[in-house]
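pls read this stuff:
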Amino acid sequence: PSVPRHTNRLINEKSPYLLQHAHNPVDWFPWSQEAFDKAKKENKLIFLSVGYSTCHWCHVMEEESFKNKEIGEIMNKNFVCIKVDREERPDVDKVYMTFVQATSGGGGWPMSVWLTPDLKPFVGGTYFPPEDGVHRVGFRTVLLRIAEQWKENKDALLENSQKILEALLHRSEIHVRGQESPPPSKEVMATCFQQLSNSYDEDYGGFSESPKFPTPVNLNFLFTYWALHRTTPQGARALQMALHTLKMMAHGGIHDHIGQGFHRYSTDQHWHVPHFEKMLYDQGQLAAMYCRAFQISGDEFFADVAQDILLYVSRDLSDQAGGFYSAEDADSYPTTASGEKREGAFCVWEAEEIRALLPDPVEGATEGTTLGDVFMHHYGVKETGNVSPVKDPRQELKGKNVLIVQSSLELTAARFGLELGRLGALLWEGRRRLSAARAQRPRPHMDTKMLAAWNGLMISGFAQAGAALAKQEYVSRAVQAAAFLRRHLFDPTSGRLLRSCYRGKDNRVEQSAVPIQGFLEDYAFVIQALFDLYEASLEQGWLEWALQLQHTQDKLFWDPKGFAYFSSEAGDPSLLLRLKDDQDGAEPTANSVTVTNLLRAACYSGHTEWVEKAGQILAAFSERLQKIPITLPEMARATAVFHHTLKQVVICGDPQGEDTKEMLRCVHSVFSPNKMLILADGDSSAFLYRQLPFLASLERKDGKATAYLCSNFACSLPVTSPQELHGMLCS
């Protein structure tokens, strides 16, 4: 590579996204006091650009505008320019995204916002093309107009920004309004189910026309709704909606049939043409959803997809020290000789390429059939490419194919006169060869930042899969990742989580000079992961750490006046608002996950004030839960868990005994949303016996592993057979 012409301060950062911009001709600053001081001292406006390293349109705006020398000069002359990685600083992102959504009706990344020297926003948008077009004003024009406004109408701008801030404060407040009680669970669940049912796509699954996101939070809600209404038509429909969506996604192009894992979202209704980036948070949540689908349906198809996701993460997103990387990019060089990256280049195929890789004649099939014929038919490959030009505005996928399963195995087998088993083997061989060919292509960029929150979601994915699929290697991977968090993203002296760490030189794990402290979502997702990990591994140390972190979360983020938790800590003068997220989107909000965490924490510790706190969160979000619960499906789900009271499934037995293992396998094989597991191994000095004195009164019946179902610390009659236990769990 040639010596870069420009280097700015971002060269000293650890974030892969910030490092991508270190050689722009723009004088970028990270989000820092140095930048704020410069803006005040020189009385300059701030231009804030927020994105993330695997964001397609962020790359486009960088290529067009931030690498342009003239535009760089306009930016440097008139503004103090700040770059933020939204995955490192979700708090900063959220404040200004709230502003952009309120003023423009939409949002997304890259986010472009202009601020006064005291950080108040007054103009914002997302992607801007460099020059004026028919429908959009260009970035150069916007920069010059805003600089002019600041010269001519400074006082009006400042006054306006103050008004905007006051309106935002008012709009974004979430607190208890007089009533202290949580909303009625039955109504919230019914409304949420109805709203999801109305937006459901009967043909292709999912909950919108296009674009289509996986939204695991919707599926999780539907599984819980089914579990509580198994015998009703609505319950049956909820299950059908969730299973059909998961099936259609697994068949679609959003699923990487060659390299495993799922892309971020589909640009069309059919789950066919995706935006090709792969995010860790999707893999973690989807692995858990496919395991749930397997527990409920017993269909191996879902177990296979879960294992496919975990294979991808183990192979491609895993750091040797045990942590998980954040994401893999959508764009890459089509060949080693290419000068520019293209979206999806790593994943798409030309028909002739597949024919050349799979020329073998297939014995026993209709005359002249090659492996390529069978493969191309099954995966919807067309000679001229299978991507509609409408879904490819920049013509990057012309003549290319995104693999999508468009016919069942039975139909493909019948078409070529093959047995099912034989067809499976042929398709497997085809995928293997394409995978080997793809390995020769230049890989997309990998964001090797490791985030506590997303690592938490992935630990839950591995732990739940290990339990549901009875695979110890998944539990071990989850344990390894939890140990990584403890070593690299936790400060034992303060008891606090850190947000991020990075893969540095020689593949060592590095920390930034001033580590970023954990946010609410880091605590919520890590605590959830530790509870999941205890249930899968039965190692009480993870429980102990989870409860410590819950106390820390309460101390740092709880709002004693309005109830619920703030997303960020108090005391950061550069944050204009302390917000509470109110939407379960691609990831659930931290308050939603915390409701269930608090109920689990109370069951493992006996601290009933945590149950009260869970109710207070629901009360704070009560109005939204009653009117538009579809925006908070994970919290709607938690209202049911709160209402039905978590049941403790206590297994008394020797962890090494075959009878105990059989009872545990029974618990793990059943999806029951309002039950949690305790192993009482008789060691009265252990953490759980100290926390829960009632455990000492439970004994093994006739010396056999014995199960009790307990609620509010009172227990059912003991059962000793897995069949009886199964009946109890399903009731």
